[in-house]
Amino acid sequence: MEKIIEESRQGQSLVLEQKEENTKKLFIESYGCQMNFSDSEIVASILANQGYNTTQNLEEADLVLVNTCSIRDKAEQTVRKRLEKYNAVKRINPGMKVGVLGCMAERLKSQFLEQEKIVDMVVGPDAYKDLPNLLKEIGEGRDAINVILSKDETYGDISPVRLNSNGVTAFVSITRGCDNMCTFCVVPFTRGRERSREPQSIMEEIADLHARNFKEVTLLGQNVDSYLWYGGGLKKDYIKASEMQKATAVDFAQLLAMVAEAYPKMRIRFSTSNPQDMHESVLYVIAKYDNICNYIHLPVQSGSTRILKEMNRQHTREEYMALVDKVMNIIPDCSLSQDMITGFPTETEEDHQDTLSLMEYVKYDFGYMFAYSERPGTLAARKMEDDVPEAVKMRRLQEVVDLQQKISAERTARFMGQVVEVLIEKSSKKSDAHWSGRNSQNTTVVFPKGHYKVGDFVNVLVTDCTSATLIGEAVGYSDMQ
Ligand code: SAH
Ligand code: F3S
To answer: Which SMART domains does the record match to this protein (predicted)?
Structure first.
């Protein structure tokens, strides 16, 4: 999920509304996926009740927390550099405490405390409610750790503080964990088994955002299509649910329809979909409601059926293509994006060509592409040799990236001359005289500000484009306004 987060947000420390009575200062940074950014909003909410306001100034912090990512080795190295930086500051300000949150905390457990001695506190993704106790421990000079994974924690009862928000778009998490066990992926180990959040608490969170004039929500989960509420507990225990629980269960299509129906003037997005769990009913719901954006992030990882099997993805190349055909039939102007991994163990040149030809077939609007990084403890690491030489992985990655850029440019150009609906999010990075927002298909659109303001829904006539951005002129408010 990390891809949709702009690079500039990675690591950014976040600010929230300040509580006057709070006297202590929290510096919190997030790396990795949207779920981490969303979790940091939960953590900030918990700590706001413990006397902490956030600060963007590391030097003045009483508590420094870093929400970490383990998805690739590089992500972990980035966090390690930050830990070095915090420790340098700590030498000047010895009262400062440092805590590691999220996936690296879960993966490395006590290693940070016992062997490396570079942090005071280690807190896994399901243990944030224990932060008040853990803070007490470190306040008394003891190291503190809680990396217990939960069966039912969804933080549904915590109202996140919107950190560094544009006041227009927000993430709302609907599931935690993942049961898919893709052989390359560390997430099932760091974030635990899949569980869904109660629809009522999701609806309440969106009602609150709506009341505060937010205009877009992104429903968030490692695998949103797998959402299933039947009264609590793990997804894998659904088979044990009673007849009554089954009769009243809510799946993703139903949840999506509920949200879209309740808030027709809000845009609804969701991320991430998994091809093996994506049901046709979701596509019909997207087609039915104008306020659900026509954009699906549909990671595939490889275009080779043999590699997909080795990755434990539960579909073939052909089944994926059939799903894409179905998407395009039901939602003709839908855009799609991919995640791709190059150089998975045993990947041959022929497998790689299959990836390129699949990309040509699907014509993804965007893509998030990575060289395979072996993660300790995963099935691929235990059973397969990381046998594709680094140079080959990187060359294949470059080919995949180049092809995606070519396809993205074609896809972006298809909007030329059209009127697209844009939700204004912020000033354009390149020009303060222009607004920046996205159309339904998730392509960035910039246009002269005129009399419009952040949060407006505007129709924009596209007159020009670069490979990834549409440029145009506002021609009036859209029906969503
Ligand atoms: N279902 C999740 C996937 C999280 S990981 C979601 O919500 O998006 C995000 C992407 O990182 C994956 O789709 C995959 O393309 C990539 N990735 C995961 N493990 C990897 C590894 N070991 N090496 C390289 N890329 C990896
Ligand atoms: Fe990872 Fe596969 Fe789940 S990529 S997050 S195990 S769907």
So the answer is: Elp3
